[in-house]
Design a protein that fits this description.
The protein is α+β, with helices and mostly antiparallel strands. It is built from eleven helices and eight strands.
Length: 312
């Protein structure tokens, strides 16, 4: 499935959902089931394409939200309280969809969320599903690749220096994979997307495991919920790529906002470090276990830097 056909399909779904939301009266069970099934089919096609996994997950969460709205409106034998709970469930699913959109597209998508309890009306929930589908489709349109080089998907607006940074990451991925540093599920999803002067990297199979290198600003944003990996990534970016880094270990770090932010990095060296973050949690566990078995002192940064050395 091409990017363009997925975009067109999503925009068609958005238009259908907007029509349902604007009507005011509750949509029928059959109407909701139609668009729920359309979202599920779009998700299936998305997972078979080269589109990033988080974008596909957003479609799935949007589908789940619409399913919950349908159950609230048409579920048999439900009490009024149970119907409200179904609307709250739809609201929670939409929060997950918006989280994916913010990670992938860099901007929120829910309008009804600012209306307090009123956001639980079925019209606003359906409209928010449509809004999240719209923002996702628009972002896919903005970054749609003109060509592919290795694992790098390069948009028409991509700047040459950013393309070279992505290719540096791709070369490092190939090198580290030959050294068997990756687990198969992580390696299978590795991709880079180059738009303007930015390189967005999918660096693992976990939801939201992303990194972004801004080549012009010489900055890095890295998302990971594993604090140990974030700490070691920041140290590697400082020692190897010359960055000034900050690790965020607060609530929501690595999900709602980056767990590591760095300035003043060498973009190409930062790209190599990003290739090393893939499956790092597995390697840290293995290094710790081996050090404990051997009774040896463990310096993870020295061990990790030694892996990067051949790439200098």
């Amino acid at each position: 499935m091409s990017w363009q056909s997925l975009i067109e399909r999503l925009l068609g779904i958005e238009a259908g959902l907007r029509e349902l939301a604007a009507r005011g009266s509750p949509p029928s069970r059959e109407e909701l089931e139609r668009w729920r099934d359309e979202l599920y089919s779009a998700w299936e096609e998305c997972t078979k394409s080269e589109v990033d996994w988080d974008a596909c997950s957003t479609i799935y969460h949007a589908r789940d939200a619409l399913l919950a709205v349908g159950e609230a409106l048409h579920g048999e034998g439900l009490s009024a309280q149970e119907r409200v709970r179904k609307l709250q469930e739809a609201d929670e699913k939409l929060d997950k969809a918006e989280r994916g959109v913010k990670l992938y597209a860099g901007r929120p998508c829910r309008w009804g969320k600012q209306l307090g309890e009123a956001r639980l009306r079925h019209t606003l929930l359906i409209n928010d599903v449509a809004a999240c589908v719209h923002v996702l489709a628009q972002h896919l349109l903005e970054i749609a690749p003109e060509r592919r080089e290795g694992r790098c998907f390069i948009s028409k607006s991509a700047e040459p220096e950013a393309v070279e940074v992505c290719k540096e990451w791709d070369r490092a991925v190939g090198f580290f994979n030959k050294k068997k540093l990756y687990i198969p599920p992580d390696y299978a999803v590795l991709r880079g997307y180059v738009t303007d002067g930015r390189v967005q990297l999918r660096v693992g199979s976990a939801f939201g495991h992303l990194a972004e290198i801004d080549v012009k600003r010489r900055s890095v944003k890295y998302y990971d919920t594993d604090l140990h990996v974030s700490i070691h990534t920041a140290r590697l970016l400082e020692e190897y790529a010359g960055g000034r880094c900050r690790v965020d270990d607060g609530k929501g770090a690595g999900v709602d906002r980056p767990s590591v932010e760095c300035e003043g990095v060498d973009p190409r060296r930062a790209a190599r470090v990003m290739a090393l973050t893939t499956s790092m949690d597995e390697r840290i566990f293995e290094m710790r276990r081996n050090a404990a078995e051997e009774g040896a002192e463990l310096c993870l940064e020295r061990e990790l830097l030694s892996i990067l050395a051949p790439q200098r």
